Amino acid sequence: MNERHNKAKTASILGILGNIFLLIIKGIISFITGSKAMLADTFNSASDIFSSIMTYIGNKIASIPQDKDHNLGHGKAEYIYSLLISITMILLALTSFKDSIISLFKHNKYNYSIWLIIICIITIIVKLLLYLYTNKVSKKYNNILMKANSKDHRNDCIVTTFTLISVILSKYNIYLFDSITGIGISIWIFITGIKIFKESYDVLMDKCIDNNTKDKVLKLIKNYPDIKKIQHFNSTPVGYRYQISFTIFVDGNMSTFDSHSIADKLEDEIEQKIPEIYLTVIHVNPIEVKEK
């Protein structure tokens, strides 16, 4: 667990430093040239800084172990802060979209500069490196904050590539693509924000475990012939993992000790073999088994 949070902490700090650097150089160049696509990209970097800060704070809170006031720990902090990230992305996308639409109808032009191309190339390189690192961390530790960040970095690479195209076209007095790119960037940020919002919202509203993980649990249960049936399968998200509970029915003639030994063994096996499961609680009920 400590390694998981330490890796996320490192990724957050790298994201903050990298995005501050990009915000400064993008902001200066967009102000000098008047490029709406670069301005939208600047807004995007501002959003990225906020996202990285929220990732750092959310990760720090989520790493706090359970206590008497929080029996299941603080894992949901990851989803609360990823929700804040998504809302910020959506608001920035709407602001950038409005500015780009105005620019499109006013046929605004901007001053071509070789620095626009240089900034785009620097941004793509920085964002690609950040994406590769955060994507590796998110997949290894199933961290939604890192997942949100990695998607953001990946999107930035694509977005800035379109910004680069619009800059190259402006050299030949083709300015329409600049506003269109600004609109495209805004829509991309908006869609990404909505996706992250939905994923975070689902967990905070205690969305049940996915069918694939549930099937893994049911498959393990089938290995226990003494379990005649199961009922009341419930799941609750705890951070990036789940707590599950269900009732098993065993032969009523079986001793209490033996029936609970089965439950204890199954609980241990589920938690050891299925990393998505944080805690398993099994209730045992007797059932009448008819003699054949």
Task: Summarize this entry quickly.
By secondary structure, the chain is mainly α. The protein has helices at residues 2-33, 36-62, 77-106, 114-141, 144-170, 176-204, 211-221, 256-273, and strands at 229-238, 241-251, 277-287. The chain has a three-stranded mixed sheet with strand order 1-2-3, covered by helices on one side.
Mean pLDDT: 81
Separation of termini? Answer: 50 Å
* Helix/strand class: mainly alpha
* SSE pattern: HHHHHHHEEHE
CATH class descriptor name of the largest domain = Mainly Alpha
Say which CATH homologous superfamily of the largest domain is assigned.
Cation efflux protein transmembrane domain
Give me the count of strands.
3
Give me the side-by-side strand order of the main sheet: 1-2-3
What's the CATH topology label of the largest domain? Alpha-lytic protease prodomain-like
Quaternary: single chain
Largest sheet: 3 strands, mixed
Provide the CATH architecture of the largest domain: Up-down Bundle
H/I helix tally: 8
| Residues in helices, as a percent range | 55-70%
Whole-number radius of gyration?
25 Å
Low-confidence segments, given as residue ranges, are: none
The gross shape turns out to be elongated
Q: Which percent band covers the strand fraction?
A: 5-15%
